[in-house]
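FAQ: What does the model actually see?

It sees only this:
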Amino acid sequence: GCYAGVLRSEADMTITKIVPRYAETDQMGIIHHSVYAVWYEQARTEMLNQIGMPDDELERKGIVSPIVELNCRYKRPAYYNREVEIRTRIVKVTPVKCVIRFRELYL
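And it is asked to produce this:
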């Protein structure tokens, strides 16, 4: 597969830093749960760019990567204007799928 051998260990993860915007919060200043999927997409895009396989280039080659499953466990909230670090890595590659894991750190 196109992802074979890349970003499969902790040492190979990429880091995306995000400063939450006011528009992403609820009334309490906590980041709304729907925003995390958008952040994960940003982190996935940055990871693919960093390893030299940008989405648009893959699509031109006929390789598409639809999201077919997304699971998120909310352990603690993120807040407006407090940086969030998303660590992204590929954890499994098969001929038909690529599993990507995201981990958030609140700085």
